[in-house]
Amino acid sequence: MEPELTPGQRRLFDYLKNIIERTGNAPSLRQAAQDLGVSHAAISQGLKLLEQKGVVKRQGRYSRTLHLISPTGETAAAQRWRGRAGRFCARAVRLTRRRRRLRWLQG
Question: Is the pTM higher than 0.85?
């Protein structure tokens, strides 16, 4: 269950989600403040509140490393890794089958 966000918090969360999806990196506090038309202190406060509500996770006080948390409790990076790992495993299985087939034909 996703926590209730105020309109301002939802606006900040949606902004962060869009920027991270588009660029792969979180914006600086000043860049987010400029884009949203508020002070960087307001962005900092908003991030603290989003972190308390469990929808984002920050690493360090000043770090730009920011993880968006899904309703299942996973970060977006973990979700991407799970998808990539599945594709990697499927590819490894195909290569193994192909190698076995080649050995059988050669041997």
Answer: no
The domain defined by 1-73 folds into Arc Repressor Mutant, subunit A (1.10.10)
Q: Concatenated DSSP letters for the chain? A: -PPP--HHHHHHHHHHHHHHHHHSSPPPHHHHHHHHTS-HHHHHHHHHHHHHTTSEEESSSS---EEEBPTTS-BHHHHHHHHHHHHHHHHHHHHHHHHHHHHHHH-
- Asked if 29 and 35 count as a contact pair (C-beta separation under 8 A), the reply is no
For residue 53 the two structure tokens come to: 């509500």
- pLDDT tens digits along 24-65: 888 888 999 999 999 989 999 999 999 999 898 887 766 677
Domain boundaries, the chain: 1-73, 76-107
CA distance 102 to 107: 8
